[in-house]
Every structure is written in structure tokens, then in C-alpha cells.
């Protein structure tokens, strides 16, 4: 940050060691001068490009991306039709798929876009070269888009906005000029990195070398399969790496569970992890993007995490960031509570205490002469549909019609199960005046309602909330 301040305050002529203008300019974070209401203002006022129609389609196509994403698979398919795939070439293609995939996942994504660990220079060069072999743009360009994706997820400022559909977030955003400009995201830290600058400078040559020449040469020099090397380890492998990465923007925002948060579209799924070299636990990743892991459990598939860990053991990587377990578990708990709340809301509960009429002992006696009413824990219950169902026999219920059966119910005659208590609460038809003052908690609250999921703003008014419950009841009695 200090260099940023210095750059802003000091003009180039006053600087004792002036650097090239382009470097100087890039060191100012892109988002340092944005207004406080940048997101809302931009979303409201940014004028999108007109919708794509048949008439303007050609002007809206991103031709370079279209060429790369159509010619590569065409070469691979042509190769499959005209050249026999050798075992050695197949194995090499798979290996090179993982190498270049890791360049993106461990390099572009976790190291540079998210700074989730520190990498030594040799590892950085390896990842920059491997990532170049995946032909997905320079590190800087890639990270700028990805940081905007995390910052403005699911909005028009998100370059791969998943709300625009699976295919848009997978590939459409690259083929058609975006309707909205991606939101601002700072990558000034990357401009200072010599490896990134080196890659940026030699990018085209590195693509030719590591996207095509190297995979071809290994198969050619290794076992004489030059053509196979080009068709399969070059083009075919590239096609797989492309769609593997694209799946992080599409499949990972579409398939699976949301165990940490459901505010946005990212999801966790094993299949996504499988096809993306471990980037499939995307719900976790969007919540804890600085964590070097995507999968937090040992049995989940995250080879990128394993690779980074092995590098750290070899002294090539350090400062692997892990989000505090306590905070991770808070996210999990929140989602578990949400699911429990849904279950809770799907059940039918005893009538609300406030809605029950308060009845005097005399009135209770009068009505009990007409229908089977029994008092237990201050509540009047109509047991007419239960007389013949009572496991202890009809006679025991009949015996207590018009009487208080609290003691008998809670162990005097039989210590009823929690299920019996829950069921009993469903038969409440009134509150006996003066009947609920004592034994309020255990006896008047059915077991299934003693522990409940409540929103923070519901706690105060709950009839089951200790002090307020008593005052509510006093109000009823009053
Ligand atoms: Zn995402
Ligand atoms: Zn990310």
C-alpha cells in the first residue's frame, strides 16, 4: 500500500528512480477512486449494448475466441478420424492435461487470482508456463475477470454471470461481446510480479511453444508419434482443458449442494470436482476464496490442493492460507439450520397459546359434560377422537373427563413418552383460567417444541421464551 500512496503523491519527475510510465500507472489500484455507491450506481446506470439479433450478430462475435474454440476441437476430431491414437500418446495427453490444468487451477486461480499461498520463483515459472499451455489468456487478463466474478457474483458486473444461463457462463460470454462491462477489479498487485510480466510479454510465443510445440515434440521425439502429439496431446488435450476450466463458471454454479451459503449460485459437487481438477467445491470456494483448498474433507477430490500441499512440503510453496475452522462451521451450521427450519415449517404444530380461549373451571365442567375434555398442565384437551386409540385403554381417559390429569399423565399413572406429549398438545382446545402458572416449562411445552429454529427477530415474541412467556400468560389471565 505504501508504494501506492507514494505513487499517487509523487509526480514522476520528483521520484528519484522513475520507472516506466506503464508500470507506474498500473500500480495504482483500479478501484481506489471509485464512489461508495459504485455497485448500485453502475448496475443502475450502465447502458448495456443492444440485444444480439440476426442483423447485428456478426458485429457482436468475438472472432479470436470463436476461432480458438472451434478450430481446436476441429483439429482434434480430424485427428481422431485420420490418425490412430497410440497408448503412449493417450497417456501423455492425460498427463499434459493435468499439468496445464494445474497451471490454471493452482497457478492462475489459487495463486494469482486469490493469493491463497506464496510460491517460490521456480514454482511460479512452472505454473505460468503450464497455465500458458492451457491457452486461456494471460495471467493478468484471466485474474482480472475472475476477481470481478467473485466480487460481483451473479450480477451484470460479473463477466460470467450464471443467471444468464448455463451456456452463457460456460462459453457464451467469450463468444459474444458482453452486454455490460465487467465491474472494476484491482490487479495492480499482479503488475508488480516479474513472472506475470514475463508471461505477458512473451505470451504468444509461449502459447505456440507450450500449447502445441512441446506436447507434439514429446510424442514425436519420445515414440515417433508427431502427428498424434499434435492432434491429441496438443489440440484434443487443449479442448478438454478449456471445457474443464469453463465448467468452473457453468457447472460449478449449477450442479450440487450449497453447504456453506445459498445467497449466490456457486455449488459443491463431486462431478464438477472430477472434471475441473478439484475446483468443484465452489460453494466453499466463493465463501472462503483465500483458502488454498476447495475441498476441506480428506476424501473429497481436490488434486490442486494436494499439489499445493506437496509443493509446500518440498519447500516450493509457503503460507498456505486456511480459513478459521470455527467460521467455516458457522456457515455450515447456518445452512443446516435453514434446512431444519424448512422441516419445522412443514409440520403441523399445536395451536398457538394466544389463540386458545381462556376458560374458567365452571365453564370447563359444563362443557366436559357434553364432550370428553381433560385438563393436563393447564391446557384443556378434547380427546374425543382418541378415546378408542389410547394405548392404556379407553377407561383411563373416561375416568379423567372433567378432571385434571396432570399428575397421572406425567408419571402418576404412567410416565408418558415424548411422542405422547407431542400428540396430546395437538388436542388442545383451551387454557384453564389459573391453570398454567406452575410447571410452565416441561409440562406445558411439548418436547418437539422445546428446541426450535427461530429467526433473530422472532425470539422476543415467542410464547415459549421464558420471561415473556410468563408475562404473556399473566396477560391472558389478567
Ligand atoms: Zn464462481
Ligand atoms: Zn475463484
Topology, please?
Layout: H1 2-9, H2 21-26, H3 38-45, H4 57-60, H5 63-82, H6 87-113, E1 118-119, H7 121-133, H8 139-151, H9 166-175, H10 188-191, H11 194-201, H12 203-223, H13 226-249, H14 270-275, H15 282-287, H16 303-313, E2 317-318, H17 325-345, E3 358-359, H18 361-368, E4 373-376, E5 379-382, H19 394-400, H20 406-409, H21 418-425, E6 428-432, H22 440-444, H23 466-477
Parallel strand pairs: 3-6
Antiparallel strand pairs: 1-2, 4-5, 5-6
Helix pairs in contact: 5-13, 6-7, 6-8, 6-12, 6-13, 7-12, 12-13
Bound molecules: zinc ion (2 copies).
One zinc ion binds at residues 149, 252-253, 266, 282, 286.
Domain Cytochrome b5 heme-binding: 374-433
Pfam family, one: Cyt-b5
Biased composition (Polar residues): 1-16
Amino acid at each position: 500500500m505504501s508504494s501506492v500512496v507514494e505513487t499517487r503523491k509523487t509526480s514522476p519527475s520528483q521520484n528519484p528512480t522513475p520507472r516506466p510510465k506503464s508500470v507506474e500507472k498500473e500500480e495504482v489500484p483500479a478501484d481506489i477512486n471509485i464512489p461508495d455507491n459504485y455497485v448500485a450506481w453502475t448496475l443502475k446506470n450502465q447502458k448495456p449494448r443492444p440485444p444480439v439479433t440476426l442483423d447485428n450478430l456478426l458485429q457482436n462475435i468475438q472472432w479470436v475466441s470463436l476461432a480458438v474454440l472451434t478450430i481446436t476441437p476441429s483439429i482434434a476430431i480430424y485427428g481422431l478420424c485420420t490418425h490412430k491414437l497410440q497408448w503412449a500418446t493417450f497417456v501423455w495427453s492425460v498427463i499434459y492435461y493435468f499439468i496445464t490444468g494445474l497451471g490454471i487451477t493452482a497457478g492462475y486461480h489459487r495463486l494469482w487470482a486469490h493469493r491463497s499461498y506464496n510460491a517460490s520463483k521456480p514454482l511460479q515459472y512452472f505454473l505460468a508456463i503450464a497455465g500458458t499451455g492451457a491457452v486461456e489468456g494471460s495471467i493478468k487478463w484471466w485474474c482480472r475477470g475472475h476477481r470481478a466474478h467473485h466480487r460481483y457474483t451473479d450480477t451484470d458486473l460479473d463477466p460470467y454471470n450464471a443467471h444468464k444461463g448455463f451456456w452463457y457462463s460456460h462459453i457464451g460470454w467469450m463468444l459474444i461481446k458482453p452486454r455490460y462491462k465487467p465491474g472494476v477489479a484491482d490487479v495492480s498487485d499482479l503488475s508488480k510480479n516479474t513472472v506475470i510480466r514475463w508471461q505477458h510479454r512473451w505470451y504468444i510465443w509461449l502459447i505456440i511453444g507450450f500449447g502445441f510445440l512441446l506436447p507434439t515434440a514429446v510424442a514425436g521425439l519420445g515414440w515417433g508419434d508427431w502427428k498424434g502429439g499434435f492432434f491429441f496431446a496438443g489440440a484434443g488435450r487443449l479442448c478438454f482443458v478449456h471445457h474443464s476450466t469453463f465448467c468452473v463458471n457453468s457447472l460449478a454454479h449449477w450442479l450440487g449442494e450449497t453447504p456453506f451459503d445459498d445467497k449466490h449460485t456457486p455449488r459443491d459437487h463431486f462431478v464438477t470436482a472430477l472434471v475441473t481438477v478439484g475446483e468443484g467445491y465452489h460453494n466453499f470456494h466463493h465463501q472462503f476464496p483465500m483458502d488454498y483448498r476447495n475441498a476441506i474433507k480428506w476424501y473429497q477430490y481436490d488434486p490442486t490442493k494436494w499439489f499445493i500441499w506437496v509443493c509446500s512440503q518440498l519447500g516450493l510453496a509457503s503460507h498456505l492460507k486456511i480459513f478459521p475452522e470455527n467460521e467455516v462451521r458457522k456457515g455450515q451450521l447456518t445452512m443446516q439450520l435453514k434446512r431444519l427450519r424448512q422441516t419445522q415449517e412443514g409440520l403441523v404444530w399445536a395451536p398457538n397459546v394466544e389463540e386458545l380461549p381462556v376458560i374458567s373451571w365452571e365453564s370447563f365442567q359444563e362443557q366436559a359434560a357434553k364432550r370428553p375434555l381433560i385438563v393436563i398442565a393447564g391446557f384443556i384437551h378434547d380427546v374425543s377422537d382418541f378415546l378408542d386409540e389410547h394405548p392404556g385403554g379407553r377407561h383411563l381417559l373416561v375416568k379423567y373427563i372433567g378432571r385434571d390429569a396432570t399428575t397421572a399423565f406425567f408419571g402418576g399413572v404412567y410416565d408418558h413418552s415424548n411422542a405422547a406429549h407431542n400428540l396430546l398438545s395437538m388436542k388442545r382446545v383451551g387454557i384453564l383460567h389459573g391453570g398454567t402458572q406452575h410447571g410452565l416449562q416441561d409440562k406445558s411445552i411439548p418436547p418437539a417444541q422445546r428446541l426450535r429454529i427461530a429467526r433473530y427477530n422472532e425470539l422476543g415474541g415467542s410464547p415459549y421464551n421464558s420471561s415473556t412467556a410468563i408475562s404473556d400468560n399473566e396477560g391472558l389471565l389478567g
